[in-house]
Each structure stands twice: as structure tokens, then as C-alpha cells.
Amino acid sequence: MPRRKAAPPAEDQSAESAPHLAFDPAEFSARLAHWFKHNARDLPWRNIRDPYATWLSEIMLQQTRVATVIERYVEFLERFPTVTALAEAEEADVLALWSGLGYYRRARMLHRGAQFVLREFDGKLPRTSHELRTLPGVGDYTAAAIASIAFRERIAAIDGNVERVINRVLGWPEDRSTKARAALQQVAQSLVPPLLSPRSKANPPGDHNQAMMELGATVCTPRSPLCLQCPVVEFCQTRGEHITAPRAKQKSRTVAYLLAIRKRGTSTEVLLHKRDAQQSLMANMLELPPLPMEAVAEREPTLRLRHSITDTSYYVQIFTESAPGVPPHHDPDVIDEYHDELVVATPDDHVDSSELLPQIAASAEALQWHNTKLLALLPLTGLARKALQRSGVMLVPRPTLAGLPPLE
DNA sequence: TATTCGTGGTG
DNA sequence: TCACCAAGAAT
């Protein structure tokens, strides 16, 4: 049913005043609120009273799945519990905690944002969406989300979920034009319930925004929506998937990296390349040294993996060169033994007969040996992290036991 | 306004 | 397997 060319909504839908709806907005939001009260997931950033934590959660959640964010959010808050702590941190340390989450600009903006808040707002987040919008990395959605959730402002937060829910309810096709977005914004705003009374501790606007997103994430899903479980199905024109625009086609590329290992005294080191600060992609982050494809022609990689970045699939080949005695590749099941083995290293072993080392497509200043035991503290790219873990050089983090039932 | 930013789960 | 796309923002 989807996959058709989008048509603009009718003219009268973009009116400036409150849009005419085929149902009562108060009834809609009441149904939604009741559903949310009984179906809200228990997430770490819910029921907290720290605007900084709400801010952090909203930045992390940008284009990132809830399940992915949960652990990182807790870890980040422990390391940087306040605006001040974050503002005073080194960017590399912030990036290290963000490693693997992607969209690293978010981490840099958040870091700069904390410094901005410390300087301009005395370390306390501004309380209005208008002022929040001035923070680096905070756009319309995030400003509205923080203002409504942390400060109970009556403003609609419109993310991909909300957009999809409203389009389906009204039977509108996907349309990202300015006019269509303004129309959708009007509708979204008209659905946000007001505060009950100045004395009530409840937060109808914040709960409503979260409920709309929750509905989109768990019921009104992009494909195969669960309309039988939907609290607002009776208001819905579509009751199923709506018309969406076609996506860009996926490209693919083959790339190669060097995994060079050496020993220094009792420690083992791996060679990493620091990406240039001017790079638009993952600036200042550490990766495995890149190899030109010509250098590895005819060679068989020690490890192959696939890694996709937005609309490009990378077929990644890893070529290992290591000091004598260091296994080039290990079974992930024996990682602990492998590390024990590496600690008992032969002094002064080094990669002296390397063929690929001189072929690295990077300047020597950007290359540095790093102790494998400290890799978790470094701002590694997701791909580097994945390659280092799969090859047994970097310890795979233990799954957390929090939230699991106790052992009998 | 259209692109560019990462990564991983999912059907 | 593979296309899809997630609590968007900046440029």
C-alpha cells in the first residue's frame, strides 16, 4: 500500500488558526493519555526531575533506538552527572562515552551546549522552548520535548513517530514540504492538552508528547501497525499503513584496514589512526589505519565484516599483522584466555617485517600505538570498535545484569 | 531545500 | 539476504 508518490495536503489544512478536525482533540488526547498511563514502558529517563538528564536523553534518542540508548544513557550520566561536569570534561572523553552511538556531532554539540549553559544560564537549563532552541544541537523537536517534559510547557514535540501517527490519523500522505509540515504542526499543537491547575503536579503536555511517540514506536509502527491495540483507532482515517515517499537507493563500497599488533614490555598495543579534525565524518575519532585497496589486492583478509553508514554499505576487509607469537585472530569464546596470553608478552617484540604497515594511507603523525587494555577509554569509531572486538583484541563488554531476574 | 551525518535491529 | 529506518540538526 505505501511506496507511492506523495501529494500535498489540501489548501485549507494549512490554515493559520486551529485546524478543523473530524474529532474532538480533547477526546483524542484523553484516550491517548489513558492508554499511556497503562502501557508506558519503564525507561530510565522517565519519572526523573533533572532537566539535564532529560536533555541528555533527548539528544541520545535522536535517530537512535531506545534499546541502544538505555545503557549508554546510564553510563554517561554516571560519568558526567551534571552540566558542570560535562562542560569541564575533555571532548575526547565525551566522545569515548559516545563511541558506537553514531552521529558524533551530537556529542560535540552536547559538550559545547553544556559549556554554553554554564556561561549563559549559570549552569541551569533555560525553561522555555524558545530559549532551549538556542542551545547547540537543539532543534525544534528537542526544544519542545525538553520544555514540555521537564518544564511542562504546552508545546507539541514532533518527531518521526508523531509525524507518522498524525498523517495516518488524518489520512495524509508523507510530505516533507514546508507547507505540509506547518499543517501537521498545527494539528499536533491542537492535540496537546493544557495544564490542569497551577497546583497540580501532573504534566499533561509532557505526558502527551511522550504518549504520541510511544504510540508511534510500539503500536503505530512504520510497517504492520497494530491497529487492534490502538487507543485512537476510532479517530483514524487510515487504520493501516499510509502512503510514503520512495527512499534513496543503497550504494556499496569495499574498504580495507590494517590491524597491527605489537608488544611493549608486559602490554600489548594496537596501531590506531586519528581522523583529521577537519573531517566531516567522525572527526577526531580513532580508527584502524586505512589501507588503499591496491595494497591489498590478491590478499586474503583475516576478517571480513559489513558496516553500513546511512545509504552506503561498506564491505570491510581487515588485514592483521602482528609480532611473532601473537595470534592474528582468535575465537571470541576465548577472549579472556587470549588477554592473559597477551599480558605475558616477550619484551621488545615488534612489527619489524611488516609489508602492509608502510602502505597505510595516512600521515605518520596521525598514527599512534595504544595499549589494548585502555581501548574502552578511547573515542573509537563504531567500525573500529567492532573490528577490535571481533578479532579478540578488545574485550567485549559484559552484558549488564541489571533488570534481569535473580538467579535461582 | 536537499544532503550529510552512524549504527544496528527487523521483517 | 537486504531494504528500511529510528524520540533530528546543521549546513
Q: What pattern of helices and strands is seen along the backbone?
A: HHHHHHHHHHHEEEEEEHEH
Q: What value does the Rg take, in angstroms?
A: 25 Å
Helix content: 25-40%
Overall mean pLDDT stands at 86
Kindly report the CATH topology of the largest domain.
Endonuclease III, domain 1
Number of helices: 13
Low-confidence stretches: 1-16, 325-353, 400-408
For the largest beta-sheet, the strand count, sense and barrel status come to: 7 strands, mixed
Q: What is the β-strand count?
A: 7
What is the terminal separation in angstroms? Answer: 49 Å
CATH class membership of the largest domain: Mainly Alpha
SSE class:
alpha+beta
Give the CATH H-level superfamily of the largest domain: Hypothetical protein, domain 2
Strand content bin? 5-15%
CATH architecture of the largest domain: Orthogonal Bundle
Write down the domain tally: 2
Which outline best applies? globular
GO molecular function: hydrolase activity, acting on glycosyl bonds
InterPro entries: DNA_glycosylase (IPR011257), Endonuclease-III-like_CS2 (IPR004036), Endonuclease3_FeS-loop_motif (IPR003651), Endouclease-III_FeS-bd_BS (IPR004035), HhH-GPD_domain (IPR003265), HhH_base_excis_C (IPR023170), MIG/MutY (IPR044298)
Domain HhH-GPD: 60-218
Keywords: 4Fe-4S, DNA damage, DNA repair, Glycosidase, Hydrolase, Iron, Iron-sulfur, Metal-binding
